[in-house]
Design a protein that fits this description.
The chain is of the alpha/beta class. Helix content is 39%, strand content 17%. The structure holds pyridoxal-5'-phosphate. The site of pyridoxal-5'-phosphate (PLP) has 13 residues, from helix 7 and strand 9.
């Protein structure tokens, strides 16, 4: 009987002492290196590799290791604010600002006096300049946090008056009424699912006891639309009613448009809501605003300062990276979201045709979508390159991964949200995938799509 080959598997100390292993693992944490070594030794014990291959295996695993497993992907779905792909991609200016803010920054220091300053003062200033009707602003971690803070600070265990048509569930089981009630407030529903009138709000306001802690809340239904025999009460009318009772009007606009956007006529905007008399408006930073995940609260000085003083404000405080990205999103020109919503149609068509020609595929009309709960029935007319459905799965495993839209038996590649500089990479990857499918046409599982 010969010697057990497993005795030739190099020990951990030997591998750790190897100069090449030391060089390759220098930027990695100790436990990562230990795990890579352990796994290579295990493979040799199971005789999947020879003992002599262990060091090479360790080196190649170290070379492949990524400090963050989340990978940049190419969004070829045509869905602009794609929840599963991280909603809004940041602008070039915002990315640079995040990188700068990653070190020490004067987020809470006045450099002239050397004293402590209001945290994130410059991001707040940028918001106010971008939305002039607001007197003050506060930035928290996301839209849901902003709403919870508003209710907790303005109402406490009191009453939130809201239309039955606005008691929405948004995504992944997130239900606004449950969030509101979780703060200790209770909800008084007014109107019906499809129709709510000013009189309904007025009656609920009349029934409140004197000096009740309460607010009127108007919520943008976001990703669903009631059509047909409907009616809702405008912000201006609600503002008049609320003021008569000395109560604040809060508008949860959802998507974060700063001003009216003609391309999305149904989408509420923050400036109009404030001009129409809302005391506070709420929006997400990473939907139509095109910035980082954040909850934006803008309104009257008195309302915002009540929020800022509430203990929960500290629990929902944003980090410096978010503050940097919000500010640069507002000051750094057109965002990728805006560019994808309003592309140069001729240019987009030309890019699509060029890609289709390179691949020997067809161009088909394809409507992109806003996504992220914005403009649910607004098509964004455009085009896609039509590939066999079996291309979708291999495209997702390319480097960088390319995520497409699956429709019927087709994989549709839409360039609306693809930076033009990525076109050559997309052409090369898709060409490779199609060539591979011709050689080995095994049907891939259908791609899961969730926006
Ligand atoms: C998206 C949305 C929210 C939640 O915002 P997040 O930033 O996702 O937490 C709340 N209200 C409305 C109306 C929304 O559309």
């Amino acid at each position: 009987m010969g010697e057990d080959p497993r005795r030739r598997i190099p020990g951990t100390d030997t591998l750790l002492a190897d100069e090449r292993v030391q060089r390759a693992s220098a930027p990695l944490s100790r436990h990562v290196l230990a795990q890579v070594i352990h796994q290579a030794q295990e493979r040799a014990r199971r005789e999947e590799i020879a003992p002599e291959q262990v060091a090479v295996e360790v080196l190649s695993e170290l070379a492949r290791f990524r400090p963050c497993a989340m990978r940049p992907v190419i969004n070829a779905t045509g869905v602009v604010i794609h929840t599963n792909l991280g909603r809004a991609p940041l602008s070039a200016a915002a990315r640079l600002a995040v990188a700068d803010a990653a070190g020490y920054v004067d987020v809470e220091m006045d450099l002239e006096t050397g004293r402590r300053s209001r945290r994130g003062a410059s991001a707040r200033r940028a918001l106010l300049e971008a939305c002039p009707p607001a007197e003050d602003a506060l930035i928290v971690n996301n839209g849901a946090a902003a709403l919870a803070l508003a209710v907790a600070a303005l109402v406490g265990s009191g009453t939130v008056i809201i239309s039955r048509g606005e008691l929405i569930e948004i995504g992944a089981g997130f239900r606004l009424p449950e969030l509101i009630e979780s703060t200790g407030a209770h909800i008084v529903e007014v109107g019906t699912t499809n129709r709510t009138h000013a009189q309904d709000y007025a009656a609920a306001l009349e029934r409140l006891p004197d000096d009740a802690a309460a607010c009127v809340l108007k919520v943008h239904p976001s990703n669903y639309r009631i059509a047909g025999f409907t009616s809702a009460v405008s912000v201006a009318e609600l503002a008049t009613l609320s003021r008569e009772h000395g109560l604040p009007l809060v508008v949860d606009a959802g998507s974060g448009l700063l001003a009216p956007e003609p391309a999305l006529p149904e989408e509420p905007d923050l400036s109009s809501a404030l001009t129409d008399g809302a005391d506070l408006v709420i929006a997400s930073g990473d939907k139509l605003l095109g910035g980082p995940q954040a909850g934006l609260l803008l309104g009257t000085g008195e309302t915002v300062s009540r929020l800022a003083k509430h203990p929960l404000a500290r629990a929902m405080r944003t980090d410096k990276l978010t503050l940097a990205a919000v500010e640069a999103t507002l000051t750094g020109g057109q965002t990728p979201v805006e560019a994808a919503l309003k592309p140069d149609a001729d240019r987009l068509h030309q890019r699509t045709r060029r890609l289709a020609e390179a691949l020997g595929a067809d161009v088909v009309p394809h409507d992109g979508r806003v996504g992220g709960g914005g403009g649910p029935d607004v098509p964004l007319p455009g085009w896609a390159v039509q590939l066999p459905e079996s291309a979708a799965a291999p495209l997702r495993t390319c480097d960088p991964p390319i995520v497409t839209r699956t429709s019927g038996s087709w994989c549709l590649l839409d360039l609306r949200c693809v930076p033009e500089s990525d076109d050559p990479a997309v052409a090369e990857a898709a060409g490779w995938v199609l060539e591979h499918l011709r050689v080995c046409p095994d049907p891939a599982p259908p791609a899961a799509q969730d926006t």
